[in-house]
Specification:
heterodimer; A: 268 residues; mainly alpha; ABC transporter involved in vitamin B12 uptake, BtuC; B: alpha/beta; Rossmann fold; 2 domains; six-stranded mixed sheet; three-stranded antiparallel sheet; 7 helices; 9 strands; 33% helix
């Protein structure tokens, strides 16, 4: 097992796991406290449209996924400001239409697309240098955003009406949270795949929420828990030659069940 | 004239094509304990949102006399909060300051000792000083509502607006909150939305009954005992309901 640490691809995978865990721990916390899990699911799945289109046009898949995820986030943000009470219908629409576009473009492209499976289920061991640069920049920008605007983010997440009364631009911050969520999803797709990305962004945060007294503490704990899960899953996937995304999510789910059992039996 | 805080003149409001408020006029003076009551869907929350500037004016006028946005404290309904949200009393109270004392370019997570002193001062006014670092989900409904009042007091308001502050709170907690509001009314004007006729007769000097149209009553001009006033409120409000059915 230790010899794996000498391989560059494995070192890259560890760095990717840590960077994505920090980003998803922070953004996942915002998604959970703002009750936006379904919404994030919509953004994640809409990115499949970009993957299909990129394969059809012969463009880099990463940029196709990023473009569609960003568009999905902006469309959902725009509709949620206009028709908040029917937002679930529109999220479902973005979710399904994004997937459908992807499927149609993949159908229209001749040949076998091996890359596709790695985007659906993750391929952390195949993470490239450019992927790492994207993840590092994204994580740094998110860290700056959170620390600079923590009070605004806390206020709009807890009580957006009151935050607006106090002169905070709630719509701008909600849109920014969704934009960062879409970029984090694109980064996390490389680690666990788009089918499983929501689990990575919600399971560690759910546990962290339970163990925290503040949003900031929740973000830190969620990132640490997420790092534990992704690294454990990574070692498991290397050892037993399993798909990385599935290994990480199953490890997370197992920890989650253990946590629930522990809480049920030992904590009042 | 000097005592006027807010004048509402011929205010009407539509949600899409549905008329919610029709030609409402009233005045709030300095020192008032002003109650707004009426059935659900009668336009109470719409009126509050218009007064706070959350909704845009469509017809009519609202004139604020020497009253800026920062002079208005707002306490929303108790039931609208996510109880799982990990947040301390200090975090909630500090929201009352907005981003006023935010000085750092990079790190705005921790509060300065000056800010903590401000929060303590507000919490002291509502008897919650010792709860500063407690998680909000571990408080009772009444305690939580007092924290929201402390948040509103943070900016030293001249007018405190409360939207059904005692919904989902037990009788003991309700009494504590109204005793606190009576005390606060010595230094500021209170505007409260409530269904509780007992509260109106015990504490309010003016009541606006709202059911699309508005019916104003100055309770101080009625020389009744509290018991009689309570009875009067019930009879008058019933009559108003009757009037609408005519």
């Amino acid at each position: 097992m230790i010899e794996a640490l000498h391989y560059t691809f494995f070192q890259n995978a560890i760095i990717a796991a840590i960077l994505v865990s920090i980003a998803s721990g922070i953004i996942g916390s915002l998604i959970v406290v703002n009750k936006m899990s379904f919404l994030t699911g919509g953004i994640a799945h809409s990115s499949y449209g970009g993957i299909g289109l990129a394969i059809f046009l012969g463009l880099p898949i990463f940029w196709g996924a990023t473009f569609f995820a960003l568009m999905g986030a902006l469309i959902i943000a725009f509709i949620s400001f206009k028709q908040r009470e029917r937002i679930d219908v529109f999220i479902g629409l973005v979710w399904a239409v994004g997937m459908a576009i992807g499927v149609v473009f993949v159908d229209l492209t001749p040949g076998y697309h091996g890359d596709l499976l790695s985007y659906l289920f993750g391929s952390i061991l195949a993470v490239s240098k450019s992927d790492l640069i994207f993840m590092a920049i994204l994580t740094l920008v998110i860290l700056f955003f959170i620390h600079r605007y923590y009070r605004e983010i806390l206020a709009i997440s807890y009580d957006s009406t009151y935050a607006s009364l106090k002169g905070i631009n709630a719509k701008l911050f909600f849109t920014l949270i969704l934009v960062f969520a879409s970029l984090t999803i694109v980064a996390a797709i490389k680690v666990v795949g788009l089918i499983l990305v929501i689990a990575l962004m919600t399971i560690p945060t759910y546990i962290a929420e339970d163990l925290s007294n503040s949003l900031y503490e929740m973000m830190i704990k969620s990132s640490i828990i997420s790092i534990t899960f992704t690294l454990s899953g990574l070692f498991l996937s290397y050892k037993f030659d399993l798909t990385s995304g599935a290994a990480i999510i199953l490890i997370s789910a197992a920890f989650f069940l253990l946590y629930l059992a522990f809480k049920h039996f030992f904590i009042k | 004239m000097k005592n006027k805080l807010i004048e509402v003149k011929n205010l009407s409001f539509f949600y899409e094509k549905e008329l919610v408020l029709e030609n409402i006029s009233f005045e709030i003076n300095k020192g008032d304990f002003f109650a707004i009551t009426g059935p659900n869907g009668g336009g109470k929350s719409t009126l509050i949102q218009l007064l706070l500037g959350i909704l845009p004016l469509q017809q009519g006028k609202i004139v604020y006399h020497n009253l800026s946005k920062d002079d208005i404290g707002y306490v929303p309904q108790n039931s609208n909060f996510n109880l799982d949200f990990p947040i301390t009393v200090l975090d909630v109270v500090m929201m009352g300051n907005g981003t006023k004392h935010q000085n750092h370019f990079f790190f705005n997570v921790k509060y300065s000792s000056f800010e903590i002193a401000c929060a303590k001062e507000s919490l002291k006014k509502v008897g919650m000083e010792s709860f500063l670092h407690r998680t909000i989900s571990k408080l009772s409904g009444g305690q939580r509502q007092r924290v929201f009042i402390a948040r509103a007091l943070c900016s030293h308001p001249k007018l405190l607006i409360l939207d059904e502050p005692t919904s989902n709170i037990d009788a003991k907690g309700q009494k504590e909150i109204f005793t606190l509001l009576k005390e606060l009314n010595k230094t500021m004007t209170i505007l409260i939305v409530t269904h509780d006729l007992g509260v109106i007769s015990n504490y309010a000097n003016k009541v606006l009954y709202l059911n699309q149209k508005g019916y104003m009553h100055d309770l101080t001009t009625l020389n009744f005992s509290i018991k009689e006033k309570e009875h009067f409120c019930e009879v008058e409000l019933m009559q108003m309901l009757g009037k609408e059915n005519d």
